[in-house]
């Protein structure tokens, strides 16, 4: 008898929720979607799936959230299809944090989180989304898989064998998760014929240790593709291995200005004083006339100049302040002194900061403060010179 009364009560709640779903009021429909999730009835899945197409974003997100919580595989395909539905493409609102950094509320994040809760089939769906070049908001799918953590690793390793076209994406996800079970896969793909995969491998090796890892990264510095060499240089810098300094110094003469810049950043992060004279040589030999203009080549030379100046301020060398002070006042072009002064004021070393500030005041420049990412993706405040 008690079970009968419970069944009747649930049926009444289900009918009420279904009636609310037909309301003209979006808030009422949103509440109904949440109530459906709490009702233990097999029919609720189909009603929640139907609500994924509601005209209200709040109702759609409530339905998506509950479908993930309930863990029914029937929800995988409808949730995956949301990625291609136009009503899910909009951004509800934008906000700013205390530092003025803007972020957007992306409805598809709710879909991605729910798919991530649906186990192996949900992760497969998210990987398929990442593998589609036309997919909106790929970062939502990426972050959702990463949020699963180590539990997702067996599925991802299995997919690495089954979906070679998605290998670079899978390597990036596995790198972000940081599970040691993926290390053998990273090592095995160093010679992959696809340069995009080798870029992903270089990024992954940055977080690994061992003499064989350093050897593999050094070999990638000789890769035919610029982006692979760039990431290999950054990876060696992230590892801070002083043994890689001579090879990184050689990369300061690379054909690509961006590779030279990444090698400079890496040498700065390692901080070995052996890099000072080579970096000064690069700084002195940059042709200021090539830095003018909005084109790609000019931008690459400006980037190299900025990287070289930044690297010099990070080295552990005696008399560094005196050496850089002389270098600061040695040139009168529009690019080199300004790049060095900006690096000095952002160095964090009191005597170097004071040196840069003195030059800035003498030249009448002003500062503007902004948020920037360093080459390793760390977000930090930085002073930019203007005027």
Question: Which short descriptors sum up this protein?
Answer:
mainly alpha; two-stranded antiparallel ribbon; 21 helices
Q: What can you tell me about this protein's structure?
A:
The protein has about 375 residues and is mainly alpha-helical. About 60% of the residues lie in helices and about 5% in strands. It has 21 helices and four strands. The protein has helices spanning about 1-20, 25-40, 45-50, 55-70, 75-80, 110-115, 120-130, 140-150, 155-160, 165-175, 185-190, 195-205, 210-220, 225-240, 245-250, 255-270, 275-285, 295-315, 320-330, 335-345, 350-365; strands at about 95, 100-105, 365-375, 380-385. The strands form two sheets. It has a two-stranded antiparallel ribbon with strand order 1-2. It has a two-stranded antiparallel sheet with strand order 3-4. A hairpin with a 5-residue loop joins strand 1 (about 95) and strand 2. The relative contact order is 0.05. The model is unreliable at about 5-10 (pLDDT under 50).
Helix share, percent: 55-70%
Question: How many strands, which pairing sense, and closed or not: the largest β-sheet?
Answer: 2 strands, antiparallel
Overall pLDDT level: 86
Unreliable segments of 5+ consecutive residues: 4-8
Query: Element order, helices and strands?
Result: HHHHHEEHHHHHHHHHHHHHHHHEE
**Radius of gyration, rounded?**
27 Å
Measured distance between first and last alpha carbons: 83 Å
Count of helical regions: 21
What's the helix and strand layout?
Blueprint: H1 2-20, H2 26-38, H3 44-51, H4 57-70, H5 76-81, E1 94-96, E2 102-104, H6 108-117, H7 119-130, H8 138-148, H9 153-162, H10 167-177, H11 183-188, H12 195-205, H13 211-220, H14 226-239, H15 245-251, H16 257-270, H17 276-285, H18 296-313, H19 320-328, H20 336-345, H21 350-363, E3 366-373, E4 379-386
Antiparallel strand pairs: 1-2, 3-4
Helix pairs in contact: 1-2, 2-4, 3-4, 4-6, 6-7, 6-8, 7-8, 8-10, 9-10, 10-12, 12-14, 13-14, 14-16, 15-16, 16-18, 17-18, 18-20, 19-21, 20-21
């Amino acid at each position: 008898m008690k079970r009968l009364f419970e069944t009747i009560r649930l049926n009444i709640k289900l009918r009420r929720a279904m009636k609310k779903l037909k309301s003209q009021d979006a808030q009422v429909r949103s509440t109904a979607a949440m109530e459906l999730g709490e009702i233990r009835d097999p029919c609720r899945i189909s009603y929640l799936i139907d609500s994924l197409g509601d005209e209200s974003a709040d109702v759609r997100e409530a339905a998506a959230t509950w479908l993930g919580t309930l863990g029914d595989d029937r929800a995988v395909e409808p949730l995956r299809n949301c990625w291609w539905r136009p009503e899910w493409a909009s951004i509800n609102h934008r906000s700013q944090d205390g530092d003025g950094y803007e972020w957007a509320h992306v409805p598809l994040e709710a879909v991605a989180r729910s798919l991530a809760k649906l186990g192996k089939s949900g992760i497969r769906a998210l990987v398929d989304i990442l593998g589609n070049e036309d997919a909106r908001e790929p970062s939502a799918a990426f972050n959702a898989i990463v949020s699963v953590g180590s539990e997702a690793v067996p599925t991802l390793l299995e997919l690495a064998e089954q979906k070679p076209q998605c290998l670079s994406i899978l390597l990036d996800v596995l790198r972000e998760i940081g599970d040691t079970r993926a290390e053998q896969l990273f090592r095995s793909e160093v010679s992959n014929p696809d340069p995009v995969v080798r870029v992903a491998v270089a990024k992954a090796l940055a977080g690994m240790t061992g003499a064989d890892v350093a050897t593999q990264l050094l070999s990638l510095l000789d890769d035919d593709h610029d982006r692979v060499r760039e990431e290999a240089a950054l990876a060696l810098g992230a590892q801070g291995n002083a043994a890689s300094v001579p090879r990184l110094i050689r990369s300061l003469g690379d054909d690509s200005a961006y590779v030279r810049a990444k090698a400079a950043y890496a040498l700065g992060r390692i901080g070995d004083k052996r890099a000072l004279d080579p970096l000064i040589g690069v700084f002195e030999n940059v042709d200021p006339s090539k830095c003018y203009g909005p084109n790609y080549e000019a931008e690459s030379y400006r980037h190299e100049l900025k990287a070289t100046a930044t690297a010099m301020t990070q080295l552990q060398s005696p008399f560094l302040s005196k050496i850089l002070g002389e270098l600061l006042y040695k040139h009168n072009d529009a690019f080199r002194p300004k790049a060095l002064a900006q690096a000095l004021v952002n160095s964090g070393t009191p005597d170097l900061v004071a040196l840069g500030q003195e030059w800035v005041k003498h030249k009448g420049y002003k500062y503007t403060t902004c948020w920037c990412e360093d080459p390793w993706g760390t977000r930090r405040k930085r002073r930019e010179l203007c005027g």
